[in-house]
Specification:
The chain folds into two domains: 3-61 and 321-434, Alpha-Beta Complex (Aspartate Aminotransferase, domain 1); 76-319, 3-Layer(aba) Sandwich (Aspartate Aminotransferase, domain 2), CATH 3.40.640. The protein has 13 helices and 15 strands. A hairpin with a 6-residue loop joins β6 and β7. By secondary structure, the protein is of the alpha/beta class. The strands form three sheets. Strands 4-11-10-9-8-5-6-7 form an eight-stranded mixed beta sheet, sandwiched between helices. The chain has a four-stranded mixed beta sheet with strand order 1-2-3-14. α2 runs antiparallel to α10.
């Protein structure tokens, strides 16, 4: 399909995206891909540094991965048989987890947070579940999931630390805010304010990382949350769906903060799109949940092909030493992006680690173009020149551009991508405030592409 056939098909046969993304120009249709390189049906060649989250680890169509999935498709059995690859995947998780984490359960996509909450409720006797995430500037956002009276379902009530954490720190000598003097709301005070907002005694705190791979506004924050959880009889749940399997330069993102969660959530979405979620915990917590006759919602066994894909990917990550490669890539990305930030007022800050980085744009540096217009212009200009970055509509502020080369990317490929980004930033800076988003983004075949 060329660009014209794609447009005709969308216009004639598809329902417009009600979320508003139909306003955005169409992306090219993919023809084939290998590692971080993607080719479209018009002959264009691109480096995928974030446009496709499923390729964040192995890129696209790693030969060993593809062969394993192909073999598995010829040997799918029935539920009455044990699946050797699923059993091996449990073993593999046990080998790469941090003690005392050891046991795992596979669940259907999207169910892992509910399953983890169910285990925490069974073990602690609590009901509500606090959630916390950190923005790039260190602001904490607490929410809580209030357990319904029937015990089924949940209602989401938002509490923002910027509003609820304005109380004085209970003890600066034992809190990360006192050590850093970061100027952000005290995480300890914010935690206790969110705790008071709960309708029932909370069972757990669920932490999610920022897009840059960090779990909080600075060193010590995660450890403080773990200490407070245990002080109040709660379990700490960490969701590593975005940061696991080495993407931050460590096998698990929480290792940067020298903590181990009570329950770990992982999601494995790899280059061919196979997906499997897992909930991992320590043997004593698993035994307590089992003894309490914990009824977990909508638990499914597994997808056998996804188990094979996950097993093979973990083996590739370990045997090809991709974790250390991601750590080295992170040092280089930090240097290159830091240099770009020093050269252009378009970049307000650089965040991240390993193969997960993000740049925070500063619209003031481009003649006060609205943040979304600036990020859209940058992403589209990079795509024209052969670099795919994640759609900026996924960021609520419109300021964040994610730069995440697959862990298998070579030094030359990372260099190419950074050169393209640097060139686009210089062009936008040179154009000052003249850059405006237009409704047209039709790319002519061969225009501004990397050499074949």
């Amino acid at each position: 399909m060329d660009a014209y056939e794609v447009q005709e098909t969308v216009d004639r046969w598809t329902i417009p995206n009600l979320s508003g993304q139909s306003r955005w120009p169409l992306r090219p249709a993919i023809a084939h891909a290998q590692g971080p390189i993607v080719h479209d049906t018009d002959g264009g060649r691109y480096l995928d540094f974030g446009a496709n989250p499923t390729g964040a680890i192995l890129g696209h169509n790693h030969p060993r991965y593809v062969e394993a999935v192909r073999r598995r498709l010829h040997a799918i059995g029935q539920d009455s048989f044990l699946d050797p690859d699923a059993l091996q995947l449990h073993c593999r998780f046990g080998e790469i987890l941090t003690a005392p984490l050891q046991k795992s359960m596979f669940v259907s996509q999207g169910e892992a947070p509910r399953v983890a909450a169910g285990i925490a409720r069974a073990v602690t006797g609590g009901a509500d579940v606090l959630t916390v995430s950190a923005t790039h500037d260190g602001t904490l956002c607490f929410q809580y999931l209030a357990a319904a009276a029937s015990g089924q379902g949940a209602a989401l009530i938002t509490r923002n630390a910027a509003n609820s954490g304005d109380r004085d720190c209970p003890d600066p000598s034992h809190c990360s805010c006192g050590a850093q003097e970061c100027g952000q709301p005290c995480p300890w005070a914010a935690f206790e304010a969110a705790l008071r907002a709960c309708e029932q005694r909370p069972a757990a705190l669920l932490m999610t990382p920022s897009a840059g791979g960090a779990f909080g506004p600075g060193a010590g924050w995660t450890r403080a949350m773990r200490r407070l959880c245990h002080q109040y009889g709660m379990l700490l749940i960490i969701d590593e769906s975005a940061t696991g399997y080495g993407k931050t330069g460590r096998m698990w993102g929480y290792q940067h903060d020298d903590v181990v969660p009570d329950i770990l959530i992982v999601s494995a979405r790899f280059g061919a799109g196979q997906s499997i979620d897992a909930v991992c915990t320590a043997p004593d917590i698993a035994d307590q949940a089992s003894a309490a006759n914990c009824r977990l919602p909508s638990v499914e066994w597994h997808d056998p092909v996804a188990c094979t894909a996950a097993l093979t990917t973990i083996d590739i990550v370990r045997e090809e030493e991709l974790v250390s490669r991601a750590a080295a890539m992170g040092e280089y990305l930090n240097m290159r992006l830091g240099a770009m930030a020093a050269d252009t007022p378009l970049i307000g800050a650089v965040h991240g680690r390993g193969a997960m980085y993000a740049i925070e744009l500063s619209p003031e540096g481009a003649g006060n173009i609205p943040a979304r217009g600036l990020s859209q212009a940058l992403v589209h200009a990079c795509r024209h020149k052969g670099l795919l970055l994640q759609d900026p509509t996924r960021d609520a502020s419109g300021r964040i551009i994610r730069v995440a080369p697959p862990m298998v990317s070579t030094e030359t490929q990372v260099d190419e991508g950074m050169d393209i980004l640097d060139r686009v930033l210089r062009e936008i800076t040179g154009a000052s405030g003249a850059w405006k988003t237009s409704g047209q983004d039709a790319r002519q075949a061969g225009e501004d592409q990397l050499p074949q």
